[in-house]
Amino acid sequence: MKDSSELAILGGTPAFTNQLYVGRPNIGDRSAFMGRVNDILDRRWLTNNGICVQEFERRLEALLGVKHCIAMCNATVALEITIRALGMTGEVIVPSFTFVATPHSLQWQQITPVFCDIDPETHSIDPRRVESLITPRTTGIIGVHLWGKPCAIEALTEIAHRRNLRMLFDAAHAFGCSHNGRMIGSFGDAEVFSFHATKFFNTFEGGAVATNDDELAARIRLMKNFGFAGYDTVVYIGTNGKMSEISAAMGLTSLEHLEEFIAINRRNYAAYASGLADLPGVRLVPLEGTDRYNYQYVVIEINEQAAGIHRDALLQALHAENIMARRYFYPGCHRMEPYRSYFPNAGLLLPETELLVQRVLSLPTGTAVTEEDIINICAIIRLVLENGVKVAKVLA
Questions:
Q1: Which of 73, 177, 180, 302 is the most exposed place for a label (fewest CB within 10 A)?
Q2: Is 199 a residue of the active site?
Q3: Each residue of 67-81: pLDDT tens digit?
Q4: What string of H, E and C letters represents the secondary structure of the chain?
């Protein structure tokens, strides 16, 4: 274990030779995956709703308990297509504390994202603030399930039903999670998942739309394939959102290791909880109760006043040790272009978001991180906080 003079930020040697990342891809059984790849090559059917994609969709539907799960090339395109299929126009209410793809999927289609503040306890959109943002131009709400924790599903859905709005959930973080015993994927008009390489469950690149609405599913299937309803028959405007066979093969292989990946994430989360316990100014985002979580993200909040150091100083100190922690979702979508130009005063209406983007830190986890790594990471965090004045002086 290091002492203060050995911290890399103070001139010592980094604790880790290789960098530890928040989202280094999980890899399942390579031989099983390569077997599927060889089958794909033998069939010479590489895309256009092949056998692997069809099987992948069936298995997702069974896992999520939904009537329809439509595989896509990525979650951003899945959001764009679903938004259009739902008939959203005008304005849609979204959190600013999310990945920028969420508002981009609206703005890309000339729909105005109206940023709503978050609940500081859950980090998700605050339904108590949604109602005041509804105007005659509002057509929908997008709730985001952050860190694998469901957002306020019932409250948001009630508002949407009462105000005749579409209800879409961005479930990019929440694959394999549940809410009140029901799997995420079956709520709202539809839910969109991300299977990007950085997610604990990946298809290289990919995503999916889950819904129990037959008509909506039919529209999405048309729209993801240029509007083709049969050979040489186009009946709807569409684009290319199809998942390839190679991505579906990775998805099928990852599904076979889903519980293993979650178990490792759970172990890592518990190790962080133990290592960071009673550390002043550090709050580990809780994952409690009987619901199912994927433990994909280990997220802490740094209270500068109590910790004696700003989150960004801790971040730099960790990076110096090759611990590649991340600031999610800094600086908030409302402070990114084009939104900061469109809505220069948005921050005045988002005080909790403004505070949270200065405090949140996501720590390395996944199959590439060991319990011993986590013990060392926690010890370094503790040491940095104990020497906050020295670290701040060096950085200044």
A1: 180
A2: yes
A3: 999 999 999 999 999
A4: CCCHHHCHHHCCCCCCCCCEECCCCCCCCHHHHHHHHHHHHHHCCCCCCCHHHHHHHHHHHHHHCCCEEEEECCHHHHHHHHHHHCCCCCEEEEECCCCCHHHHHHHCCCCEEEEECECCCCCCECHHHHHHHCCCCEEEEEEECHHHCCCCHHHHHHHHHHCCCEEEEECCCCCCCEECCEECCCCCCEEEEECCCCCCCCCCCCEEEEECCHHHHHHHHHHCECCEEECCEECCCCCECCCCHHHHHHHHHHHCCHHHHHHHHHHHHHHHHHHCCCCCCEEECCCCCCCCCCCCCEEEEECHHHHCCCHHHHHHHHHHCCEECECCCCCCHHHCCCHHHHCCCHHHHCHHHHHHCCCEEEECCCCCCCHHHHHHHHHHHHHHHHCHHHHHHHHC
* Residue 396, pLDDT score: 84
Residue-range domain boundaries for the chain: 4-23+257-325+364-395, 30-255
Asked if domains 4-23+257-325+364-395 and 30-255 share a fold, the reply is no
CA distance 188 to 323: 38
The residue from 199, 224, 242, 393 that is catalytic is 199
Q: Render pLDDT for 322-344 as a digit per residue (tens, 0 to 9).
A: 999 999 999 999 999 999 999 99
Query: Distance (Å, rounded) from C-alpha 160 to C-alpha 13?
Result: 54
Q: Which residues are CB-neighbours of 119 under 8 A, at least 6 positions away?
A: 125, 126, 128, 152, 352
Compute how many other C-beta atoms are within 10 angstroms of the C-beta atom of residue 270.
Answer: 13
Residue 210 and residue 64 in contact, taking contact as beta carbons nearer than 8 Å? yes
Q: Which amino acid is at 52?
A: C
Q: How many angstroms separate the CA atoms of 76 and 257, rounded? A: 25
CATH 3.90.1150.10 fits 4-23+257-325+364-395, yes or no: yes
Structure tokens at 219: 């529209």
30-255 CATH: 3.40.640.10
Amino acid at 385: L
The pair of structure tokens assigned to 244 is 């390839």
